[in-house]
Amino acid sequence: MKSFEYTITDPVGIHARPAGLLVKEIKGYSGSTVTISKGEKSVNALKLMALMQMGIKQGDTVKVDVEGGDEEAVASAIEAFFKANL
Amino acid sequence: MITIQGKGVSTGVAAGPLYFYQRAKGTLRRYEVEDREAEFARFKAAQAKAMEQLGVLAEKAREEAGDEAAMLFETHQMMCEDMDYEEAIEGFIRESGINAEAAVTDAGAAQAEAFAAMEDDYFKARAADVKDISTRIVGILMGVVQGGIDSEVPVILAADDLAPSETVQLDKSKILGFVTSGGSGSSHTAILARTMGIPAIIGVGDQLKPEYEGREVIVDGGTGSVVVDADDDTRERLMKKRTELLHRQQLLNQLRGQPNVSRDGQEVRIYCNIGNPEDVHAVLENDGGGIGLFRSEFLYLNCDDYPTEDYQFEAYKKVLSDMGGKEVVIRTLDIGADKMIGYFNLPHEENPALGNRALRICLNRPEIFRTQLRALYRASAYGRLSIMFPMVTSVWEVKEAKKLCEQVKAELAEEGIPFSEEVDVGIMIETPAAAVVSDRLAKVVDFFSIGTNDLTQYTLACDRQNNDLGRFFNAHHPAVLRLIKMVAENAHKEGIWCGICGELGADLDLTETFLSIGIDELSVSPRSVLPLRQKVRDTEVAAVREKLVDDLMSDRNTI
Question: Under CATH, what is the fold of the domain B256-553?
């Protein structure tokens, strides 16, 4: 498993637009499972509504876990996505 | 005449007959199905159809309002295929054997409830998205055709609240404005109305009565009022406002992105005066080239105690990053005189305009000043910051203030906190003393900005707040204009720029004069940017320069 932490800088947090883009991004890596956690709560990042319902706000730190064959590459791609969009 | 008050969420004035949005109605039936697999297949087909419709809507929105608007429907597509949502529906059909319409409605309601229970207003409003998707799928299952407006003439559209897909499907040529009984400022109806430039008023509640259908209404998205059967005076007033707004809109469209260049090629920067971080929106909307005066007092006025460094830093940073690299001139604390703050515990003064105010307070109480300067320099890493000191009379004051700046920079460097080395430091010229010694001041600063309100009051010895002095308070007084000319010349001799950030900057009767004496920057309220740009573009400076400057400097004129 490959993990990283990221602190959200987007003023609205993980809102519909970046959440949608994220799901789209992750769908491109079918070999890996991506989990996003904040505190005790965690969610499969493919579940758009559940992800939005986490209510992740600006300043929250989330942990992203990637599991699967190409986890190294997928994790760095997703980290780049977070930096660019969130 | 009946006046209804709601909340205006998209500006503009429009008049027309009121029309209630016709939503296809059908009673949702709930029953047990025999063939659960076939029922689930029926849902899957409806879901696919919904995906297809949303794809069409996304393209339509892209054409009409750009990628951002299209993204909404693309997000709807993803929600439509959301794993939890679909699993819930599948569970209801396959395990409980209920019909697809009821299953979709229940699963949608559960998701909508989860959003509605969230704290944040933005996420709360997403409940409407989920309901919209469910309504769409149920509509397809029930064979409902998505409808438009059945009217020959354009209307003011009334509804409880419009779902995003409904807003986009509407025939725009038939809509003059929106009135909804529910809704929120961050609902898609409001967002799309703004994008499309149609007035919208929300939250009028049960004041909106079905019997108003077909009657003439005037909506004002600026004030949030809806007038049914307006009397002649009201109608005339609102129609005049409508014409002005349309004219303004036209001007905005024509002048947006155009340079502020006179006919003979002289350029002037037109910046904006703001007093709140939220005003940045208006600056960008009106195409301001930067911010020439950001009054930092709001930070102090909004607090019950001295605002902390972090609090100030966040506010400055927001403005700097929102302005995306355009210059932002932030004026350091300017209180005293007409702006008093309780916790500063300033003693009562007989003559506060000539008292302990602005930079004087900052130099007398450096601990307050230091906090502000630290916040400013920290924020400088996020955009193009310039710092400006108000109420200067002597060179030593500027030197002392700049020394504090250097100390703050050294501290930050030592603490490893990033800041920009490119911050310009300038001063307001608003006392006759500063104007008269501006040749010396120009050697120690990077720019001047003339504050004409105070400069006029001090030069003419005329209290600007005393209404009885109206005819004596003449901002066009040659004494004031000669000082402005002198200040500009002294600035240019030292190779620094000179702007004007008082009310006079937006005075179109003086634009030619200011261009003639070579003012480099005019900072005005956001609404004044485009009219001023128009004036600059209509001026031929060479043709008027000699006469205007001669008139100003000669002894012939006896006014």
Answer: TIM Barrel (3.20.20)
DSSP code for B214: T
Domain B155-253 part of CATH 3.30.460.80: no
Interchain proximity B122–A12, CB inside 8 Å: yes
**Cα distance between residue B396 and residue B404, in whole Å:** 12
> E strands of B399-470, at which residues?
424-429, 447-450
Q: Could you give the CA distance from residue A71 to residue A77 in angstroms, rounded to a whole number?
A: 10
Reported pTM: 0.58
If one looks up domain A2-85 in CATH, what number appears? 3.30.1340.10
Give B-chain residues touching A15 at CB under 8 angstroms.
122-123
Active site residue B76: no
pLDDT of B270 reads: 97
Catalytic-residue membership of A79 = no
Among residues A6, A10, A15, A60, which one is catalytic? Answer: A15
Residue B387 bridge partners (DSSP): B330, B425
B 108-137 residues with CB < 8 A to A:
111, 114-115, 118-120, 122-123, 126, 129-130
Chain B contact for A77, CB < 8 A? no
By the CB < 8 Å criterion, does A12 face chain B? yes
Rg for chain B, CA atoms, rounded: 30
Which is higher by pLDDT, B410 or A60? B410
Write the pLDDT tens digit of every residue in B193-244: 776 678 999 989 888 888 898 899 999 998 999 999 999 999 999 999 999 8
| Residue in A13, A17, A49 nearest the CB of B111 | A49
Alpha-carbon gap, residue B167 to B10, rounded angstroms: 14
* Domain residue limits, chain A: 2-85
Architecture field, domain B25-141: Orthogonal Bundle (1.10)
Mean pLDDT of B82-107: 91
Q: Tell me how far apart the alpha carbons of residues B516 and B341 are, in angstroms, rounded to a whole number.
A: 40
With tokens 């149920």, the residue in question is B138
Secondary structure element (H or E) that encloses residue B347, with its range: none
Q: Does B74 touch chain A (CB under 8 A)?
A: yes
CB contact under 8 A, B123 and A55: yes
Whether residues A19 and B79 touch (CB distance < 8 A) is answered with: no
Please indicate whether, in this complex, the C-beta atoms of A20 and B74 are within 8 angstroms of each other: yes
Taking only the tens place, the pLDDT of each residue in B287-345 is: 999 999 999 988 888 788 899 999 999 999 999 999 999 999 999 999 876 677 888 88
Residues of chain A in contact with residue B79, where contact means CB-CB under 8 angstroms, are: 48-49
3-state DSSP percent of chain A in helix, strand and coil, to 5: 40, 30, 35
Rounded distance, CA B331 to CA B298, Å?
11
